[in-house]
Write a structure and sequence with these properties.
Shape: globular
Helix content: 25-40%
Strand content: 15-25%
CATH class: Alpha Beta
Order of helices and strands: HEHEHEHEHEHEHEHEH
Number of strands: 8
Structural class: alpha/beta
Bound molecules: pyridoxal-5'-phosphate
Number of domains: 1
CATH superfamily: Alanine racemase
Distance between the termini: 8 Å
Length: 221
């Protein structure tokens, strides 16, 4: 695992240099779906402290037995009836994609007097099999959230690129998300985070402006 990590960190650095982003901080989120707690502990021991999960039922027992200093990111489709369990355990929700979910997050956040940070998931490639808003729906959606749900703080955008053999083919997807984040102007909202890039395409994503990459198999095997 350490070799994998070193390789990933190297490649991220390389992509940063290549695109003139040396000064930027890129957060490596280790995706732990299907990964046993022992392996997660090993990841912690080599310096990883941001973890991502998309299966609520699977992750809760794991979180319970892992050190509580870890930062958890919810990266999968979130059902409204799971919000209650997700909010107290996760620092950032990457998959806000509909008003009914925002409403539930608002209700739960208000109840516990907290502000919940979230990224809006965008289905840039318009894939039928994926969740997320269309590019042209995002600004209106953010305006609505700001207007109706004061306990939600939107801090950026997230996308999952289509799986392709050659990651260069999804460069335009990442570029489009970056452009969208620059174009949207909603008072009080700063879209500074771009969660994009997975094992097969994170270098291209970093070159195109990712601030968070979500990596599972390239790290854990
Ligand atoms: C599983 C998953 C990842 C990690 O995928 P790998 O290809 O294993 O790196 C990243 N993001 C999301 C949303 C995922 O579900």
């Amino acid at each position: 695992m350490q070799d994998n990590l070193l390789k990933i960190v190297d490649k991220i650095k390389e992509a940063q240099v290549k695109s003139g982003r040396q000064e930027d901080t890129i957060t490596l989120i280790a995706v732990t779906k299907g990964v046993a707690p022992e392996k997660i502990k090993e990841a912690v021991s080599i310096g990883i402290n941001n973890f991502g999960e998309n299966r609520v039922q699977e992750v809760i027992p794991k979180i319970e037995i892992l050190p509580d200093k870890l930062t958890w990111h919810f990266i999968g489709h979130l059902q409204s009836n799971k919000v209650k369990e997700v909010l107290p355990r996760f620092s950032l929700i990457h998959s806000l994609d509909r008003l009914s979910l925002a409403k539930e997050i608002q209700i739960r956040s208000e109840k516990s007097s907290r502000i919940t940070e979230a990224l809006v998931q965008v289905n840039v490639a318009e894939e039928k099999s994926k969740f997320g808003l269309s590019v042209n729906e995002v600004e209106g959606f953010i305006e609505m959230v700001v207007e109706k749900f004061p306990n939600i703080k939107i801090t950026g955008l997230m996308t999952i690129a289509p799986y392709v053999e050659d990651p260069q083919e999804v460069r335009t997807i990442f570029r489009e998300l970056k452009n969208l984040s620059c174009k949207i102007k909603v008072p009080g909202v700063e879209l500074k985070e771009l969660s994009m890039g997975m094992s097969s395409d994170y270098e291209v994503a970093v070159e195109e402006g990712a601030t968070m990459v979500r990596i599972g198999t390239a790290l854990f095997g």
